Amino acid sequence: MRSITLVSGIVICAAAMIGSLATVAPVRAEDIAILEQDVEYSFAQQLTFTLAFTSSAEISELYLFFRGTTDPDTEKVTVAVADRGGVTRASYTHDVGLYPLPPFDRIAFWWQIEDVLGNQLQTEPDEFTYADNRFQWRELSSPGISVHWIEGRGDPVYAQTALDIAQASVAEINAELRAPVPDSLDIFLYDSEFHLEAAMVLGGRDWIGGQARPELGVVVVAVPPEQGYASRMKRYVPHEITHLLVYELVGSEGYRYVPTWLDEGLATSNEQLPTPEYALALEEAQQANELVSLRDLCVPFPPNGSRALLSYAQSASVVRFIRQQYGSDAIRRLLAAYADGASCTSGVEDALGISFSRLESDWLASLRPATGWRVWVERGGVWIGLWLLSILVTVPMIGHLHREAGR
Is the pTM higher than 0.85? Predict the structure, then answer.
């Protein structure tokens, strides 16, 4: 993720409440020269774009364009200008409170200037990262991975733990996925779920505990710097990194077709430390005959509650079953099928060669506790087979001997 501030190339070094970007653009058209373009913002409050330029003729129109990486539409604004001592200045303020922007999105912006003589100039698009500058952030980096944590909330050991887990997670998860590794991966550690929830809500996004922004190469998790933080990191960091690697493997278009049970099942099963609540939720639902239909897990899960917990538990269980029965190659075949636009059900048929309902029934059968007879058969399967084969060979021989004796 590339971010820019007035001071350096990293947006998180901006002041706690105001982030800004400034460039001097040597872009010129006839009789129009750009002197400076800036953007300043207060997270979840407002963005202010400013422009300064000179022109030998009167300006007829001035337009501002900006858009986020995840925004399908470009904002277009006509901006008034003011001539001050030969330098023309203009500004536009966007109310982020009314029109939220996704946290940590990259925002590109550019200007178009037209004068009464017909001269026209469009500035080169510039870009900044809309980080949560309510806080001042510290950073610890290794090639390709950066961990950011709030100043005064955690120390370098805390950050190094997250960095070590992230590095190990990328290697371990990609041993199966074999996905292209993003050029940059940024992990933001909030010191509380309250602060992370506020950031997501203020940014107009649903709150889901932790989040990955695959299209941005960003992971956002809440890990208080207190005893046991390593355990939380081992769950949250690999989970969210899985989403990023799946995205890199299937692409932005293909990611839309990956069913939630596979995406979240991979992420949950890749957590370095198992979550006991998942196993308990799965066992209780099975005993009560309240398991969620696999078809219902094709779509996004509920944001919270017992149903969400069970959905994650089931999805992880299904993914583990596929690995055990069909191998890691099957996971890659599934992702390839969905990347090609397969439906939730047809992807299973294409990749595994069985129907979607067969996958579900086989998985359900694997959950049933083995009876004494079943355990005996499974453990002694080879010897039982040899015993039956010997009977098949011996019985005809005995019959033949009886017939010979009767003569």
Answer: no
